[in-house]
Design brief:
TIM Barrel
Amino acid sequence: MSRQYFIAGNWKMHKTRAEAADLAKTLVLQLKDGKHKYLVAPSFTSLETVGAIVKDTNVLLGAQDVAAEEQGAHTGEVSVLQLKDLGVQVVILGHSERRHTYKEDDALINKKVKLALKHGFEVILCVGETLEEREAGQAEVVCESQTLWGLSGVSAIDLAKVTIAYEPVWAIGTGKTASPEDAEAIHAYIRKVIARVYGEESAQKLIIQYGGSVKPDNVAQLMAKENIDGALVGGAALKSDTFVPIAQFS
């Protein structure tokens, strides 16, 4: 089954509104004839600015996180209702920085996943092991657990709106990349886990991105693997001259 490649740029905590606007304008121009699915996820402060630029283009607007509650007394949080109001289409959840730096556990991430899906968002659910877990032979166990926890209570119909991003924690922002073979092995394993729970057809339709030091010079080798369906790009997403070649790989 052929799956459409999904290339997403996670801008993390970078860029003023003016800088974000400049990058978004360049990307819209350079990717307008691109054949893959594209997303940019700026900081909350730039969502409205970038949203106006990517509206009605082939670049989706993503948010980097969302609160686990719909609204209320949650100082510093941003709700699904507020994101929807800004035109956000996709929410990234369970990113390793949220898990490890901000101590979000699987139960919280699952709550966010279900809330986002309930409000009609697409979700990118991030999973991945630390270096210690990989060296202990636990990579598959960790990714299976995070996948099943993250999708707990998610129907087969809603699964169609979920992308899973495998991002080995040891490869994020470190310059280290999982070899295409190592990445493919985990992607294939995650697809097997999904097949067990949701059936083979759902598993074959599922988009599984790779994230972790994706660059113009390694994207083609990664995407050539059967079970790797796109990229969740961090550092290289911050400049058009590195993100565009990734987004336009063939």
